[in-house]
Design brief:
Elements lengths: L8 E4 L1 E4 L2 E8 L17 H30 L5 H10 L2 H14 L3 H17 L4 H4 L1 H17 L13 E5 L4 H5 L6 E6 L7 H9 L3 E3 L4 H4 L5 E5 L4 E4 L3 H22 L15 E6 L5 H6 L5 E5 L13 H15 L4 E4 L26 H7 L1 H14 L5 E5 L5 H20 L9 E6 L2 H5 L1 H4 L5 E4 L1 H9 L17 H16 L3 E4 L10 H7 L3 E4 L4 H10 L2 H12 L4 H13 L8
Helix pairs in contact: 1-2, 1-3, 1-6, 2-6, 3-4, 4-6, 12-14, 14-15, 20-22, 22-23
């Protein structure tokens, strides 16, 4: 254990939610329950099964009660995440696999549930997409809730903490974050967690400074220690000296001033000083996120992830369920458009109903558009639902992971078939609905000029494009330094795609993480991208840079960047260009 008595002890983790919190630490017990596997007798199976199922029901009742209380106290805006946890509790897979283990292996309920949770974690760990991989954490949080109900050990409620404190915990659940009273809890730091976990997403939406993934923060800090957490850099300072305290206090005041200034941008147009517009949109998965989109000045949805409709269930959502979900999103985002991406998953890691075999390399396997084209019984109802919903507002449809022209042509053929079906049935749809594709793999970049003849817009998924182009797994800590958005290969790929789109007269869009990083805005502006889609809280900071830059300046800066030969050289040019124009609220 590191002594917390040391002055200016620094810890570095993942910047989960921006902002600076300065206060006293409050270490709270959020460690995972330790359970052991124990053998049971055949005559104990029925009682053990009942004990498990009773705990599941009690956990469901607890969560439902918490949801109702939070809705009364704080409104329903962020409660969709609790709905996800309620869905997991009702998932037959979770219960059936645990009960099967109790019965077939004559194992106690705690051990059987732990075995089931391990299987779920293995499934999710194999997922290439970071955002979807983090959903495995939701299953584990629900499992912990059940285990605590079985054992009878409850966690200390955060609502009972007093004073202005920074919470230090092994991990926090979305329910924990939703219960935070910002007048008493001014930030949090955890051992576990990632940037795309639901706890981190909520912290950003609620404006709570947070650093996660610190690994040993709970063993490095004692309750009562003076602490600073910088959610923008992922830094935690334990027992800061006077000079460090003053420096961070100044940064905190500057950050809060900038936030007030950025809020004033909400209703101003997203355009450069010389009048060049870029559409700034949000990446969403639930309609409950729409208020945050509007609050931050988003001009529609550039990426509606439909995967959550298919997850945490053993059956497939039918056409009507999907139609209602898409219709609700379109109506609530109106008058702005919604770009709906078709199912982007990898085999039965998400949709067991498809009953596909495990793959040695799922990142390069049967996923996204490949999976949809192979399973028309899943693909066609989704397309019908989207087309039907398009009759009620502005909607676009786009397909993930297109790698060859044949894939988009086949998808368009199916759309045309469905349009004919709907017409013959007298069902309305937008006959001129725009069709696009995700550019995520090098082959699509190289034939972007050909693909542009087939569609109405491109949307670049920079996360996957960087990973596939540089041949790295960005979750591999030994390779993380090679995950370089500013690598010349990536920037040249972006230019090829933007140029091909504009030569064909279609829009060039980005919906990956690069779109939401204000530091990259000058390059994306200089390359000519028409639309950037990001997490809603990122919109004001990107708009701030956009409204201070001119298109001509961005083009000049981008020409210099494209001549650089390393990511490090690009970064120096970019930082110099931004620093020459901005002195405040630009980060």
């Amino acid at each position: 254990m590191v002594s917390a008595r040391s002055s200016n002890l620094l810890l570095h983790g993942i910047s989960a939610s921006p902002g600076i919190a300065i206060g006293r630490a409050r270490v709270t017990d959020r460690a995972k329950i330790a359970v052991s596997e124990a053998a049971i007798r055949p005559d104990e199976v029925a009682a053990e099964t009942k004990r498990f199922l009773d705990a599941v029901e009690k956990a469901r009742e607890d969560l439902q009660l918490l949801k109702e209380q939070l809705e009364l106290e704080k409104g329903a805006e962020h409660l969709y995440i609790l709905d996800t946890h309620l869905m997991i509790l009702e998932d037959p897979m979770l219960t059936s696999q645990t009960v099967s283990c109790i019965e077939s292996q004559l194992m106690n309920a705690e051990g059987s549930l732990k075995k089931t949770l391990v299987k779920f974690r293995e499934f999710f760990n194999a997922i290439d997409n970071e955002y979807l991989r983090e959903r495995g954490g939701d299953v584990e949080i629900v499992g912990e809730r059940i285990l605590r109900r079985m054992i009878g050990i409850q966690q200390e409620p955060l609502v009972e903490l007093t004073g202005k404190v920074v919470v230090i915990a092994h991990d926090l659940s979305p329910a924990d974050v939703l219960q935070i009273d910002k007048n008493r809890i001014i930030g949090f730091a955890t051992d576990l967690g990632g940037k795309t976990s639901h706890a981190s997403i909520l912290a950003r939406a609620l404006g709570i400074p947070a650093v996660v993934g610190l690994e040993a923060v709970t063993t490095s800090i004692l309750s009562g220690d003076h602490i600073i957490i910088d959610g923008s850099t992922g830094t935690v300072v334990i027992n800061p000296d006077d000079q460090t305290f003053r420096e961070y206090l100044s940064r905190k005041l500057q950050y809060e001033y900038c936030n007030r200034e950025l809020a004033k941008l909400r209703d101003l147009p997203a355009e450069t000083v010389d009048g060049h517009p870029i559409s700034l949109k949000g990446n969403l998965e639930f309609t409950e996120e729409i208020p945050a989109l509007k609050e931050h000045g988003g001009e529609g949805v550039g990426l509606y992830r439909t995967e959550m409709l298919f997850m945490n269930r053993t059956d497939l959502p039918d056409e009507e369920e999907q139609f209602n979900a898409y219709l609700k999103m379109i109506l609530e985002v109106a008058p702005f458009p919604v770009s709906i991406r078709t199912l982007d998953v990898g085999g039965d890691k998400f949709v067991p109903e498809l009953n596909l075999a495990d793959e040695l390399n799922p990142a390069l396997g049967l996923r996204a558009i490949r999976l949809s084209l192979r399973n028309p019984e899943t693909f066609r109802p989704q397309l019908r639902a989207i087309l039907r919903a398009s009759a009620f507002g502005k909607a676009r449809i786009f397909f993930p992971m297109i790698s060859v022209i044949a894939e988009i042509r086949e998808a368009k053929r199916i759309i045309n078939e469905i349009k004919s079906e709907l017409s013959s049935q007298g069902i309305a749809y937008d006959d001129k609905i725009k069709i696009g594709i995700m550019i995520e793999v090098p082959s699509a970049v190289l034939i972007a000029d050909l693909l542009a003849q087939e569609v109405d817009f491109f949307s670049i998924g920079t996360n996957d494009l960087i990973q596939y182009s540089l041949a790295i797994d960005r979750t591999n800590e030994h390779l993380s330094h090679l995950y370089q958005p500013l690598n010349p290969a990536i920037l040249r790929s972006l230019k090829m795609v933007a140029d091909a789109a504009h030569a064909a007269g279609i829009d060039a869009c980005i919906c990956g993480e690069m779109a939401g990083d204000p530091d990259y805005l000058p390059i994306l502006l200089g390359l000519g991208f028409d639309e950037l889609s990001m997490s809603p809280p990122s919109i004001p900071r990107v708009k701030n840079i956009l409204r201070r830059f001119s298109r001509a300046e961005a083009v000049t800066l981008t020409e210099k960047v494209l001549a650089a030969d390393t990511a490090e050289a690009v970064e120096l040019i970019l930082k110099s260009g931004i620093a020459a124009h901005f002195s405040d609220c630009s980060e």
